[in-house]
Amino acid sequence: MTRRAIIVVAASMMLASAACAADSQIWGGMIITNIPEYGKDQSRNLGPLFTYLQGNFFRSIFLGILLGIPAVFLCHYLVFGPKVFSHDGERIYVFTLFNRIIHLLAAVSFVILVPTGFMIVFGAYLGGGALVTYARHLHGIATIVFAVSVVPMFVFWFVEMLPAMDDIKWFFMLGGYLSRKKQEVPAGKFNGGQKVWFWLATIGGLVMIVTGGAMYLQDFGLGIAGGLGMSQIDLLRLAAIVHNLLAFAVVAFFFTHVYMSLFAIKGSINSIITGYKEEDEVKHLHSSYYRKLKQVRKA
Amino acid sequence: MSNGQARMKFYCDTTRCIECFACSVACSEAHELPVGISRRKVVTMHEGIPGKEYSISIACMHCTDAPCEQVCPVDCFYIREDGIVLHDKNKCIGCGYCLYACPFGAPQFPRDGAFGTKGAMDKCTMCAGGPEETNSARERHLYGHNRIAEGKVPICAAVCATNALLVGDAEEVSTIYRKRVSSRGKGA
């Protein structure tokens, strides 16, 4: 009985997909009207643009990021060395348990998303086939984990991540990272660099989910493409271009985030594990926040 | 006559196509395609509007500068010396990039994985099979009947009752079409 039910369900799903194919926006009658959208003068030319970018640049740029950014950080480490702060002072509680759990989810998803993304980009060198196909599936599954974490993360850090005057000063001195000197850096609870990463990871992350989801679903109706005044295939082309361009920035900042937390500031990774930051570290790298904490304590 | 190597092309003469779907049905039958996959399609434009209505049969056009081949992240495409564009399904990861690059909506993706994930891409092979051993059971299973290797015309053009669908060396095809246009005095 169960087996029969499964067969019935499977068969009806197959028929449903066949029915979908008949009035599909990609493979239905629009297959003809979509042709002039490719390369004709009045069209958006997204097809030729995607072909040009993916055929000539995307892979090389990803290779540049994959090798270039770690190389830059290696040089930085050798020239300026890590920032070391005293672990003897008081410890300041900065991340709640909820913060840390959500961040852990995001971290796990990124540790899967970024390497599997690179596996798809460099699939040709891995021989394609099952290995890269599973990387693509894993890329999709990890997206669900990221989607769960991104909304609460956006909400609980939103206020502290809003731009402030300190951030401009921070950018002019690049957070003091181009100096061996231990100095007080202007920053609130989060510095200018962290804020850029936050907005990129949350808003940019949502765009990555939406564009990736569009490519995963491919032939969805929903009236989204029509609502935007474009064809479904052009919407997919736009999604592919945006997903790749945004991935450059997300991956570059992800590498930076990892370098900062693991190497550039000794022991700073502990704050997202235990919730506590060393007083010496907060005093120097988040000086405005430290002063505010002191004032609150006095009052 | 063509000079040197032939470049195989399809051309559908829209003044002759009568929307009988023989090409599409014969293709699906010859290659034993799964439900939901249709390598060749017949589309009627401006249906019911006198003077404007026409039908056209469309599949992979086997482009000389095939954009699908340029964007594939796993480089699974290869273009034969005679211009037929083929791909290796064992390399394909079903990402869909070839579809975005294609002007003609030729690549299709069977939803055969768990949760309806996209499987390896499927498209018209101009009845020339794939990279597996010619006429092997494996080739037939993955890519369909290799009629070219048997010296036969692709099934879609072979069954076209009005000879609307032309296939062959690009120069031969354009010669035939030019003759038709000049004899009927319109339609170029």
UniProtKB/TrEMBL annotation, chain A:
Cite a single GO BP annotation. respiratory electron transport chain
Task: Report if keyword Heme is assigned.
Answer: yes
Name what cofactor the protein needs. Answer: heme
Subcellular location, in the record's words?
A: Cell membrane
Q: Give start and end of each Cytochrome b561 bacterial/Ni-hydrogenase domain.
A: 94-275
Its domain of life? Bacteria
The record's keywords, sorted A to Z, are: Cell membrane, Electron transport, Heme, Iron, Membrane, Metal-binding, Signal, Transmembrane, Transmembrane helix, Transport
Chief location of this protein within or outside the cell: membrane
What GO molecular-function term can you cite, just one? electron transfer activity
Of which family is this protein a member? Belongs to the formate dehydrogenase gamma subunit family.
Q: What is this protein called?
A: Formate dehydrogenase gamma subunit
Q: What is the lineage of its organism?
A: Bacteria, Pseudomonadati, Thermodesulfobacteriota, Desulfobulbia, Desulfobulbales
From TrEMBL, chain B:
**Keyword vocabulary terms for this entry:** 4Fe-4S, Electron transport, Iron, Iron-sulfur, Metal-binding, Transport
| Keyword Metal-binding appears in the UniProt entry | yes
CDD domains given for it? Answer: DMSOR_beta_like
| Domain annotation 4Fe-4S ferredoxin-type: ranges | 8-36, 52-82, 83-112
Q: Which Pfam families match?
A: Fer4_11 (PF13247)
SUPFAM superfamilies linked to this entry: 4Fe-4S ferredoxins
Is this entry keyworded Ribosomal protein? no
Extract the InterPro entries matched here: 4Fe4S_Fe-S-bd (IPR017896), 4Fe4S_Fe_S_CS (IPR017900), 7Fe_ferredoxin (IPR000813), ET_IronSulfur_Cluster-Binding (IPR050954)
Q: Which Gene Ontology molecular function entries are recorded, alphabetically?
A: 4 iron, 4 sulfur cluster binding; electron transfer activity; metal ion binding
Q: Which cofactor does it need?
A: [4Fe-4S] cluster
* Record's function text: Ferredoxins are iron-sulfur proteins that transfer electrons in a wide variety of metabolic reactions.
Instruction: Name the NCBIfam families on file.
Output: FDH3_beta (NF038355)
Q: What is this protein called?
A: Ferredoxin
| Species this chain originates from | Desulfofustis glycolicus DSM 9705
Which lineage? Bacteria, Pseudomonadati, Thermodesulfobacteriota, Desulfobulbia, Desulfobulbales
